[in-house]
């Protein structure tokens, strides 16, 4: 009981700190008034363009074996949800090897009584990019309407669980990459490579053959960030087995990456000055 | 009460030695040459509550490395270290609640935030009540004279202005133990005097234990009755300032320290540096 109470308090505290960082982030964005207004408009414009682009694009792509346009669009829409959270919170974890490890910014992080990974994430987040999530939702709803998908209330908690699991996979992969900076000091060429691989997650995985599919499922499990969980929501029963594994894969991958991070912290050596 | 207890504390850095030229770089790809540097070498160190200890040594002697181990940033290679009842790096998140840290070389504040916003964030992080916060803030405004730039972003402050804010930030949560690594670097004469007065007051009224490194011996003379001298990672001297002067038969601390850094032995003292 005591443990549960402690955990609850700690989560409430981290939430409070998170929102405080968030409001500071917005404030610092607003220091330059003209910049801020332009940014708001350009973000909005960008996301709308993105949406229109997706809608138009899907009218023109060929049907892949066994997958209708609407279904592919639905998968893509689902994928944009974890992708939005990734862009907002995890993308800049690629600064970690250079900025935090080599230049020693981690010194500052480590003398504060907060989780180090949490601090790095809130310090490098780009909150405005999280709005991409809404584009994803819009695409999903649109596609669902077009294929006359019937919804029931439990699709909502289920969808949230799947999206959370998918986000954890993204978080896990990028935490893992950031942690490698503790072993291989210096920037690694891995980030763009992984980014490219992550993009495969938004297409039906059964168009990939053997090795690629294996990698996307079990090594860098990006198939769980779009395809597998989306099929569950589309009621394509042949993939339920994989789709429902999404939260489990997310948690396991995240836990593993976090463990690597804590081991990396122990190797941290700072700078000579 | 013992606050810091270090026994045989050691930190080694494995340094990758790059070979020269393109051919060297190519060979580095396959076989790397490492060299082990003992930045802190088997030191024993005990600090009691309320002490104000000056920690000095030549450039590269190992001062910052020691402080980084004591603040939980670096994991010691070997030896025993207990501070405030904690093993610093293992219980980091609990341990750091009770300490304050200032690194002269590196800002602890958020670069883009106004100073007061940084303080507000720290208030949340350390769970300081509004009453305590206001009271401490007023005190810092008075003594450190930071009232004028509380609303400027940290990156716009001059070095001296920033250092005062750093000190205030490190003390907002009223830590029992304060680590200062070159807190007077780059300060003008008046600012130095202010900060020394401030530290003395904090040490006396709040019984805050302070460990301070500096290259300005004026800081030591003004503040510390106890000095520890480290040389190439080894503890060379740990005792009172008066005793140190007596050993060397010389009142001018600068001369004494110069001789020590040159590796000389004090005349007629047995067992120096053992
Ligand atoms: N991250 C690191 N990697 C490699 N070597 C390091 C690292 N940090 C410190 N060193 C080395 O350890 C030794 C001690 O460094 P340290 O920073 O503790 O010295 P210092 O006493 O604080 O010196 P200064 O007065 O110049 O600040 C130096 O030789 C330094 O080069
Ligand atoms: Mg130093």
What can you see in these coordinates?
The complex is a heterodimer of chains A (273) and B (274). By secondary structure, chain A is mainly α. Chain A has helices at 2-30, 33-60, 69-90, 96-102, 106-110, 116-124, 132-146, 155-183, 190-198, 210-219, 227-233, 240-243, 246-267. Chain A is built from 13 helices and no strands. The model of chain A has no long low-confidence stretch (mean pLDDT 86). Chain B has 274 residues and is α/β, with parallel strands linked by helices. Helices cover 37% and strands 26% of the residues of chain B. Chain B is globular. Chain B starts with a strand and ends in a 13-residue tail after the last helix. Chain B contains ten helices and nine strands. Classes of the chains: A mainly alpha (273), B alpha/beta (274). The complex binds adenosine-5'-triphosphate and magnesium ion (MG). Magnesium ion is lined by residues 63-64, 181 of chain B. Residues 63-64, 181 of chain B line the site of magnesium ion.
Keywords summarizing the entry:
heterodimer; A: 273 residues; mainly alpha; globular; B: 274 residues; alpha/beta; 6-stranded mixed β-sheet; 3-stranded antiparallel β-sheet; 37% helix; binds adenosine-5'-triphosphate; binds magnesium ion
List the helices and strands and how they pair.
The complex is a heterodimer of chains A (273) and B (274).
Chain A: H1 2-30, H2 33-60, H3 69-90, H4 96-102, H5 106-110, H6 116-124, H7 132-146, H8 155-183, H9 190-198, H10 210-219, H11 227-233, H12 240-243, H13 246-267
Helix pairs in contact in A: 2-3, 2-7, 3-7, 3-8, 3-11, 4-8, 8-13
Chain B: E1 2-17, H1 21-30, E2 33-48, E3 52-56, H2 63-70, E4 78-83, H3 92-95, E5 99-103, H4 115-125, H5 130-144, H6 159-171, E6 177-181, H7 189-205, E7 209-213, H8 217-223, E8 226-231, E9 234-240, H9 241-248, H10 253-261
Parallel strand pairs in B: 3-7, 3-8, 5-6, 6-7
Antiparallel strand pairs in B: 1-2, 1-4, 8-9
Helix pairs in contact in B: 5-6
The structure holds adenosine-5'-triphosphate (ATP) and magnesium ion (MG).
Adenosine-5'-triphosphate sits between chains B (13, 15, 37, 39, 57, 59-65) and A (269-272).
